[in-house]
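To whoever is on call:

I kicked off a structure prediction for a single chain this morning and the downstream step that reads the tokens threw a length-mismatch warning. I double-checked the sequence; it's 166 residues and nothing unusual in it as far as I can see. Pasting both halves so you can look.
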Amino acid sequence: MKVMVAVDESEGSIHALNWVLTYLPLGGGGGGGDPGETSTLYLVHAHHAFQTYIYPAGPVVYSTPMVMESFTKAEAENSQRILAEALQRCTEKNMAKQIKTETMMLQGEPKEMICQAAEQMGVDLLVLGSRGLGLLKRAFLGSVSDYCAHEADCPVLIVKPDDQSK
């Protein structure tokens, strides 16, 4: 079984990862696959690409290469930290299980990049956390989980926070 979990710094994504590690049968052949087959867990972090322009109150101002390089480096370091924390959580919760875990750092519109990665990797299940936004906030702010639920080519599991699962 191939499972992809989108992670970021939100409590919702950490809760989704914990849910997968607790409830999905990912150890040796779990999930209905061949008994000898090892499951694969993909941890994915996607962040927006740096825009080369800044819109102040007046005309367009382009950022310098040094600013672009600094921002790109900071984003990469942040992504590596997030993925390392998620990988550590997997190691702590699944020491006895045989799960192949891979990390992926994606740059671009997160909702689109996550769906593309799920399709390219041929995952059996895409798991996302939910921020618990209401209908109005979701309409204005957008929702990665809502987009993926409608656009992904595989089944999508959206894990709600504990306070909403009453």
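Update from on-call: the warning came from a stale cache, not from the record. Cleared it. Sanity check on the structure: Residues 21 and 33 are 18 Å apart (CA to CA).
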